[in-house]
Design goal:
TIM Barrel; alpha/beta; two-stranded antiparallel sheet; 10 helices; 321 residues; eight-stranded parallel beta barrel
Length: 321
């Protein structure tokens, strides 16, 4: 797969990025460490060199799993991690960064991101000037190489960019979840801010593996995902039926087709989680599929049969933000 530059930096990232939320176990069920480590390694062997994690994924557990899996290949990979919304005071950011560096067993983080805006989940409101100032000092010290934000609105992104250089935005973005396109994508394109999409396969919905009557186990965060509920879920299943002939045309799975569509969007890469080596290998295939323009438009139209009926709330889960 062909690398692209992160924002205005010289950091090269892969269009498919390995996502570490599942590796942290919290919010997921039936996650096995050995299989997770094998998934990281299979992703690397398949050409994925960019790995996204966060301190909030199992209180640093995901970061430690990444270090276990690929610590010996540090100079060959790009590490993205995040500081949570309750650690956005200047001293808290510095402390969180040091914890992440220790968890990751590295001396630098390639992209350090604010995971959720200040005030999310009842956290203390901290001026963006304070948070960005601390991140800027970490960058000057060589602890981090670039600054990103996640789950920010356009207004929040603009406010952060007025204080310091922001090279990426990490929003929920997929064929079935596209609120970011309305206002924020144009701003990112204009300002050369990379869009690093999470949940690019709508937490597995776009793989087509869930039948119309599927129920999640207790403890699985997807039970709260709006896309898996009521009429929205029924519309999604109908859309998947329409997408299957296109996947067959290109000889790929529904998930790979969805990833290929997403990374064909302006400045967009996709973070994809994997429970095991086979999933990681199959996800990487999506980075090598080229879809012609007519079919990209057809896929777009099918996706809109789901997204045009959604509200404008950018949070994908009913537990809010």
């Amino acid at each position: 797969m062909q690398n692209r530059l992160l924002g205005r930096t010289k950091i090269e990232i892969t269009p498919i990025i390995f996502g570490g939320w599942q590796a942290g176990k919290s919010g997921w069920t039936n996650i096995d460490d050995a299989e997770t480590i094998a998934a990281h390694q299979a992703a690397f062997d398949s050409g994925i060199t960019t790995f996204d994690t966060a301190e909030a994924y199992g209180e640093g557990y995901s970061e430690r799993i990444l270090a276990q899996a690929l610590g010996g290949k540090r100079d060959q990979i790009v590490i993205l991690t995040k500081v949570f919304a309750d650690h956005l005071k200047a001293d808290q950011i510095v402390e969180a960064c040091e914890r992440s560096l220790k968890n990751l067993n590295t001396d630098r983080i390639d992209l350090y991101q604010i995971h959720w805006p200040s005030g999310s989940f009842g956290s203390e409101v901290v001026p963006i000037e304070e948070s960005m100032g601390a991140l800027g000092k970490l960058k000057e010290a060589g602890k981090i190489r670039a600054i990103g934000v996640s789950n920010f609105s356009r207004a929040q992104l603009e406010a952060a960019a007025q204080v310091g250089r922001v090279d990426s935005l990490q929003p929920p973005y997929s064929l079935f979840w596209r609120q970011v396109e309305a206002e924020t994508v144009p701003y990112c394109v204009e300002n050369k801010i990379s869009i690093i999409a999470y949940s690019p396969m709508a937490q597995g919905l776009l793989t087509g593996k869930f039948d119309r009557d599927h129920k999640f186990e207790d403890g699985d965060n997807r039970a709260s995902n709006k896309l898996f509920q009521g009429e929205t879920y029924a519309r999604a299943q109908n859309a998947l039926d329409m997408l299957r002939p296109l996947a067959d045309k290109y000889g790929v799975t529904l998930g790979q087709l969805s990833l290929a569509w997403l990374i064909a969007q302006p400045q967009t890469s996709a973070i994809v989680g994997a429970r095991n080596a086979e999933q990681a290998t199959q996800n990487a295939v999506g980075g090598n599929v080229e879809i012609d323009e007519d079919d990209l438009e057809a896929i777009d139209e099918i996706g809109r049969t789901v997204t045009d009926r959604l509200d404008t709330n950018p949070v994908m889960w009913n537990w809010g933000g």
